[in-house]
Recover the amino acids of this structure.
């Protein structure tokens, strides 16, 4: 899911790792040869639904962009280009009466296999990294192996009633490094839970990080291609748990998903997402 500030992140002794942050979340690691140390770089469940291959996709959706600040607060713009829209107002929302249907999203969905929803692809969420070999089958969720890099495409979206103001809802994601051992070295982030969006210094309120569409309600989405450049390591054991949420003024809806990668003697032996 998306944006930007290129930064160096260091890892365990004998080896450092550089995450691609220019448009990607902070867990796409590419080992380098320089030794260093590390700073690297949720929620209560409402209704959770996973979309998998073979299931019916959502009804035909209309892409939407976020209203520009000067627009009337009730305006929703439809049929805009996927890169359109501008940053939603940053002022905190007014207090919402208890029971307000616009206070809490009613669903959070993970797409871990099958087609992406809303007509979007990985290239829409990460246009600056298109064609760089950081993922394959960009319009489809699930694991990929480029021959050098292994990971997964995942789309995540929350839904709320379409009459509600979209700027009242924001995206959040944490990642927990359940197991992180590279070339026999235990990563200092192992066991830690990290704010996965904040560390990227991305603007998660607008495209390309955030992509919205209408269909079965108003849908707010992000994508994530966590991966490992396994051609640069001899061994790896990397298990991560992600919690992705859509947050309203009165609560949130969340979904949990996990990825697991194993490399033995330079060969990829496991690459799953659930």
């Amino acid at each position: 899911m998306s944006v930007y500030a290129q930064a160096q992140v260091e890892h365990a002794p004998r080896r450092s790792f550089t995450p691609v942050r220019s448009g990607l979340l902070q867990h796409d690691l590419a080992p380098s040869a320089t030794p260093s140390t590390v700073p690297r770089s949720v929620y209560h469940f409402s209704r959770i639904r996973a979309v998998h291959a073979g299931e019916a996709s959502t009804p035909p959706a209309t892409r939407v962009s976020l209203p520009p600040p000067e627009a009337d607060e009730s305006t929703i713009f439809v049929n805009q280009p996927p890169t359109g829209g501008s940053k939603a107002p940053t002022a905190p929302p007014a207090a919402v009466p208890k029971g307000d249907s616009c206070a809490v999203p009613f669903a959070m969905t993970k797409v871990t296999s099958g087609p992406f929803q809303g007509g979007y692809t990985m290239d829409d969420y990460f246009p600056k990294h298109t064609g760089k070999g950081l993922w394959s089958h960009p319009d489809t969720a699930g694991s990929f192996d480029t021959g050098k890099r292994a990971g997964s495409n995942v789309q995540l979206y929350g839904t709320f009633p379409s009459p509600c103001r979209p700027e009242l809802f924001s995206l959040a994601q944490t990642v927990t490094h359940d197991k992180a051992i590279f070339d026999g070295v235990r990563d200092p982030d192992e066991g830690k839970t990290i704010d996965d969006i904040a560390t990227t210094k991305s603007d998660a309120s607008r495209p390309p990080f955030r992509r919205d569409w209408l269909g079965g309600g108003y849908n707010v989405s992000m994508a994530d291609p966590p991966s490992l450049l396994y051609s640069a390591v001899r061994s790896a054991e990397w298990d991560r748990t992600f919690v992705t949420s859509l947050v309203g003024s009165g609560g949130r809806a969340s979904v949990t998903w996990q990825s697991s990668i194993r490399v033995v003697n330079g060969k990829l032996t496991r690459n799953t997402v659930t």
